[in-house]
Amino acid sequence: MNTPLLAAMQERTMANKDSEEFASVSFEEKVQDWQDKIERQVRQISRGNTARILRMAKKPTEQEFMQTIIVCGIGMMVLGAIGFVILVMMDNVLPAIFRWIIT
User: Fold this and answer.
1) Nearest Cα to 90, choosing from 79, 98, 101?
2) What are the helix (H) ranges across 1-103?
3) Mean pLDDT of the chain
4) 51 near 45, Cβ under 8 Å?
5) Cβ-contact 12, 6 below 8 angstroms
6) Cβ neighbours of residue 68 under 8 Å, at least 6 residues apart?
7) How far apart are CA 9 and CA 68, in angstroms?
């Protein structure tokens, strides 16, 4: 029994299968495009100014490494101290100022 309703359902089923295949190909093409774009960017890095800088870079000596660690540590301590001073001011000094302004 081949009714018009059955024929329409079969056409929709075939159309869904075709659209699923098209969607999967479309997705694969998108992924391939992303991969090509990433590979192109990596190739540009390996040929440009970045590659020249990386070729010129060298491992630091132990003394240079220690100096870098000390300078970074001092910087972190200074930033931490500034943050602590701001915290103390927010907890102790600023509420008194705002109370004086409000009353």
Assistant:
1) 98
2) 4-47, 49-56, 62-88, 94-102
3) 81
4) yes
5) no
6) 60
7) 72
